[in-house]
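Hello, quick one for you while I still have it in my head. A protein chain has come my way and I'm curious about its shape. Can you walk me through what the tokens say about the fold? No rush at all, and the record is pasted right below.
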Amino acid sequence: MKLYKNPPIDSWKEIFKRPSSDLTPWEKRISPIIKDVQENGDQALYQLTKQFDKCQLQDLRVSKQEIEVSESLIGTNLKDAIWRAKRNIFNFHSQQKMNNYSLEVEEGVTCWQKKIPIEKVGLYIPGGSAPLFSTLLMLGIPATIAGVQNITVATPPLKNGTIHPAILFVAKILGINNIYKIGGAQAIAAMAYGTETISKVDKIFGPGNNYVNFAKLLVSTQGTAIDMAAGPSEVAIIADESANPAFLAADLLSQAEHGADSQVVLIATTEEIINKTKQQLTRQMQLLPRKKIMESALEKSVFVLASSIEDAFDMANFYASEHLILAINDAQKWSQKVVNAGSVFVGHLSPESAGDYASGTNHVLPTGGHVRADEGISVDSFMKKISFQKISPLGLSSLGPTIELLADVEGLHAHKQAVSIRLNSFLEK
């Protein structure tokens, strides 16, 4: 990790630059996959699964029996942990469902808004060597709270054609039955366009590798909504003299192990904390199995020495990270300074891992600085808002001339006519 000491503001753009990648090769790889699924449906899915996952499937769909037996294939401790995480995530997200409202904006003109769940959603759950059953909790729970009736899950199979039982157990306790053994760009294409076996969905959710993320971007230009354009994982930490270097290193490594393209940033107010954290990084990394991945991620990451805690927050808000950890004194008070972050972890005992698994907040978050204008997954992500208006004769008599004038000035005379013809009908009577 590179070290920058009290960098001037005009250098921040370069210092906090995300690792860039050329997307052109990905388009060349992924477009043919999507086209294959569009044209050949299930046949393409079987062939692509054999090609990419080294698995010869007999059936794309997970059977009811496979879902039922999943509970017997995982230990009691894991099941208890999943249930506890489910409870916390449900409790947090259940508070997000806001009521519909109605308002008479002026006499005779009533407007109201109704929130309706999206009819069909697709959830992509990364599998294989890292089966992210926690992501199914993060997506499935708000979807069910929102009232989505048709939930499709796609997740890549293991080489023996099975799905990790923890993923199936989560699906079971959430009441999700439409689960398919497909991954990568072909899974996104199947949910976006439909095949003989898999129904088309209206919106696709979930993180993934470059194949998945670029496929989501492509299908989003052709009528299927997506949750967000997810990129490499990232975390920023603000630390002062009260921070524990061992904690800081553990948090940095926990994010770095997501992938070689992950980025971690430490903004500290003392050089001593930075030096001790470096020592801890070296020590802890030797004991972790994903050492090579973490080393690659750390090459793209930075240490920054800030002149003050205020300066540190200015930098963190400029960087606008997916995750932000406040390892400082009076963290609760200082948290009010945060304006750009996906999810914030307040205090020395709030690791980012808590949000990834079981504290209750959602771990599907915008990356790449998109938190400046976007937000993570919530119940609202699975709902759409429809506005209504009803105008009485009194309301149209009063408001109509205003609408006519506005339309006339804009030169949209048919708009004006739609009002005038109704007003004239009153006079005729």
Residues 409 and 416 are 10 Å apart (CA to CA).
